[in-house]
Design goal:
The complex is a heterodimer of chains A (246) and B (303). By secondary structure, chain A is an all-alpha fold. Chain A has one domain (2-35, 52-243). Chain A is built from ten helices and no strands. Chain A has helices at residues 2-17, 19-40, 53-83, 88-91, 96-127, 135-159, 163-180, 192-198, 202-214, 223-243. In chain A, α6 (135-159) runs antiparallel to α9 (202-214) and α6 runs parallel beside α10. Chain A starts with a helix and ends with a helix. Chain B has helices at residues 41-48, 71-76, 92-100, 109-115, 131-142, 161-176, 188-194, 212-218, 262-274, 287-295, 299-302, and strands at 3-12, 15-25, 30-34, 56-61, 64-65, 77-80, 149-153, 180-185, 197-202, 205-210, 223-228, 244-250, 253-258, 279-283. A six-stranded mixed β-sheet of chain B has the order 6-7-8-3-9-10, with helices on both faces. A four-stranded antiparallel β-sheet of chain B has the order 2-1-4-5, with helices on one face. Classes of the chains: A mainly alpha (246), B alpha/beta (303). At the A-B interface, α1 and α4 of A face α2 and α3 of B. Chain A: It is a multi-pass membrane protein.
Chain lengths: 246, 303
C-alpha cells in the first residue's frame, strides 16, 4: 500500500517534470475549448437541442482526454520504460509487478480526471457550461469510459515493441479516431460514409455515453454503449494480462 | 554455502546459453563469474535471481530451493541488473525513497548514499549522473533491503579507469560489511583484484574454477620480461640463466619467458654486471593468460 502511494506520487511528479504528457492531457483540451468556444460561443441553439456549442463539446472533449490517455500516454510511457529497462526493475522487487499495475491504473485515472476537471472548470467559468444530468451517473459513466481506455492503453503497451512504434501507432490511431467519433466534429455533422467507420471506433461510444449522460438521457438510450465499453474492459485487460512483457 | 548451483542448463532455441554450470558461493566472499560476452554469465545470474526459468539443474540459495518470481528470495537478495535504468527526471533520493517502500526491512538510504560515496548527488536527476555515479545508485538500490547476497552484473563495464578503481574500492567495503557478492565481469584483472574465488565460463560451460592466484600458479604459467635497449644487446647473455625457459627477439626487443620471480632478479643481475642501459618490462602471468591458455584463444579474438 505504501509502495502504491509512493509510486502514484512519484509518477505524478515525473508527469509534471516531463512536460509533454502534461500538455496533452491537461492543456490541449482546454486550448481546444478556448479556440472553438471563442468562435462559436455557448448560445442555446436548436441545432444542439436547445443547448450551446460548449455544452455539447465539453462531454465530447472529455472523451478526447480519455482517448489521449489510452492511445498515447499509457502505451508510449510503458513501451519506453520497457525499452530502457525500467520495467525490468519491478520484477526484482517483492510484489513489484502487482504494485506497478495498480499504481498505473490509479495514476492514469487520476491524471485523466484532472484534465477533465480542468476542462469543466474552464467551461463553467468562461461559458456558463450547463449540465442537466445526474452527478453520480455521469461520474460512473466517465469511470467506465476511462477504465475501458486504460485497458486499451495496457493492451497497446503489451503489443508495442518500442517507444517509437507506440508513438507512431498510437498517434495514427488516435487522430483519425478523434475526428470520426464525434469528439471534435459533432456526429450529426459527419457524412454517412464516415459514420460507417465510426461504429468501429471505441471513442464513438465514449462520446455518445458522455453526451447522453451529461444531458440526463435515459439508461436505455445508451445501453449499447455500456455493452461495448464493458466488453472492451474485459477483452483488453485479459489480452494485456496474457501478453504483457516487463 | 549461501548459494549452490548444480548442473544448470538453459537454452534459447538451439543455442545452449548455459550448458551444465555448477558452482557454490561461500558466505562473505566475492565470487566472480568470468568470461567473454555471450559466455552465459548474465543468463546464469538471471536464473539465480529468479528472473528466468531454466531447463535443468538445481539452484539452492539461503538453504532453500530456488523458485522463480518468489518474494521470499526477492526480499533477501540485492540485484543490480546489467541493462537497466531509471526515469531520466527522477532524482537520486526519490529513487531510493521509492524503492525502499517495497520492503519491510530497510536500511536508512541516507546512510547508504554516504557509504557508497554518492551522497553529494542526492538531489541530481538520474540523467545528469556520470556512468560511474549511475552504477553507484544501482548498487545503493540493490542494497536498500539490507540483502545477504548481492548480485552485480558487469557493474564496471563502460566505466573509465578511475571510476572502475573507485567501484572496486567500494566493493571491498561492501564485502567488509559482511555481504556476499556474486559478480560477473569480462575484465580478468578486475576479477583477480576483487574475487576470492572465480569460475571462468566459456560457451555456457565452466572451464576453470578456484582462487585466482591458485589458478595462475597451478597452470604453471610463465612470467614474461621484455628487455629493450638502444644499444645492441646479445640475447645470448641470458641463455645460461636457470630460470629462463625461452628467449625470442621481437621488433628489436628481447622477450624472455621464465618461471617464478627469480627470473627477474637473474636478468637484472646480468644487466647490471654488464652495465647495459635497458628498459625492462615485467609482465606477471594473470587470469587473462589462464583464460587464453585454457580456451586456446589469442588476445585478439578473446575480449
Amino acid at each position: 500500500m505504501k509502495a502504491v502511494c509512493k509510486m502514484v506520487f512519484i509518477k505524478t511528479k515525473l508527469f509534471i517534470r516531463e512536460i509533454e504528457g502534461f500538455f496533452f492531457t491537461i492543456f490541449f483540451p482546454i486550448i481546444m475549448l478556448l479556440i472553438f468556444g471563442s468562435i462559436y460561443g455557448n448560445k442555446p441553439s436548436d441545432y444542439f437541442g436547445g443547448f450551446g456549442f460548449v455544452d455539447v463539446s465539453v462531454p465530447a472533449y472529455i472523451g478526447m482526454i480519455i482517448a489521449i490517455t489510452g492511445f498515447m500516454s499509457i502505451p508510449i510511457s510503458i513501451a519506453s520504460d520497457r525499452e530502457r529497462g525500467i520495467l525490468k526493475r519491478f520484477r526484482i522487487l517483492p510484489g513489484g509487478s502487482m504494485i506497478a499495475m495498480v499504481s498505473w491504473i490509479i495514476f492514469y485515472y487520476l491524471i485523466t480526471t484532472i484534465g477533465t476537471a480542468g476542462l469543466i472548470i474552464t467551461g463553467k467559468l468562461l461559458y456558463g457550461l450547463r449540465f442537466t444530468g445526474n452527478t453520480l451517473i455521469i461520474f460512473l459513466l466517465y469511470s467506465l469510459s476511462t477504465v475501458a481506455f486504460l485497458s486499451i492503453g495496457f493492451l497497446l503497451a503489451s503489443l508495442m515493441r518500442s517507444a517509437r512504434s507506440a508513438n507512431a501507432i498510437g498517434m495514427s490511431l488516435l487522430f483519425p479516431m478523434m475526428f470520426f467519433s464525434g469528439a471534435i466534429i459533432p456526429m450529426r455533422s459527419l457524412p454517412a460514409s464516415i459514420k460507417h467507420i465510426s461504429v468501429y471506433l471505441p471513442l464513438t461510444y465514449v462520446v455518445d455515453i458522455m453526451q447522453k449522460g451529461w444531458f440526463g438521457g435515459a439508461l436505455h438510450s445508451y445501453r449499447i454503449d455500456l455493452f461495448v465499453l464493458s466488453g472492451i474492459v474485459v477483452f483488453s485487460f485479459l489480452i494485456a494480462k496474457l501478453t504483457f512483457r516487463w | 554455502m549461501i548459494l549452490k548451483v548444480n548442473n544448470l542448463k538453459k537454452r534459447y532455441g538451439k543455442v545452449k546459453a548455459v550448458d551444465g554450470i555448477s558452482f557454490s558461493v561461500k558466505r562473505g566472499e566475492i565470487f566472480g563469474v568470468l568470461g567473454p560476452n555471450g559466455a552465459g554469465k548474465t543468463t546464469t545470474l538471471e536464473c539465480i535471481e529468479g528472473l528466468r526459468s531454466y531447463d535443468d539443474g538445481e539452484i539452492e540459495i539461503f538453504g532453500e530451493k530456488m523458485t522463480t518470481n518468489n518474494d521470499f528470495f526477492k526480499k533477501k537478495m540485492g540485484i543490480q541488473l546489467q541493462e537497466s535504468s531509471l526515469p531520466q527526471r527522477m532524482k537520486v533520493w526519490e529513487a531510493l525513497d521509492f524503492f525502499s517502500s517495497f520492503y519491510n526491512k530497510n536500511v536508512d538510504w541516507k546512510d547508504l548514499l554516504v557509504r557508497l560515496h554518492i551522497d553529494d548527488k542526492r538531489n541530481n536527476y538520474f540523467s545528469n549522473l556520470s556512468g560511474g555515479e549511475k552504477q553507484r545508485v544501482f548498487v545503493a538500490l540493490a542494497m536498500i533491503n539490507d540483502p545477504e547476497i548481492l548480485f552485480l552484473d558487469e557493474i564496471t563495464t563502460g566505466l573509465d579507469p578511475q571510476a572502475r578503481r573507485h567501484m572496486w574500492k567500494t566493493m571491498k567495503e561492501i564485502k567488509n560489511m559482511g555481504k556476499t557478492i556474486v559478480m560477473s565481469t569480462h575484465y580478468m584483472e578486475e576479477a583477480e583484484y576483487l574475487c576470492d574465488r572465480v569460475i571462468i565460463v566459456d560457451r555456457g560451460k565452466v572451464i576453470a574454477g578456484g582462487a585466482p592466484r591458485k589458478l595462475i600458479n597451478n597452470l604453471g604459467i610463465k612470467n614474461r620480461i621484455v628487455v629493450e635497449s638502444k644499444e645492441e644487446v646479445d640475447p645470448g647473455i641470458f641463455k645460461d640463466l636457470k630460470s629462463v625457459c625461452d628467449i625470442s627477439l621481437k621488433d628489436g626487443k628481447i622477450e624472455i619467458v621464465g618461471t617464478g620471480t627469480d627470473v627477474l632478479m637473474d636478468i637484472a643481475r646480468v644487466i647490471t654486471d654488464r652495465q647495459i642501459k635497458v628498459d625492462l618490462q615485467y609482465k606477471t602471468a594473470n587470469l587473462e593468460d589462464v583464460y587464453l591458455s585454457l580456451t586456446g584463444y589469442t588476445k585478439e579474438d578473446a575480449i
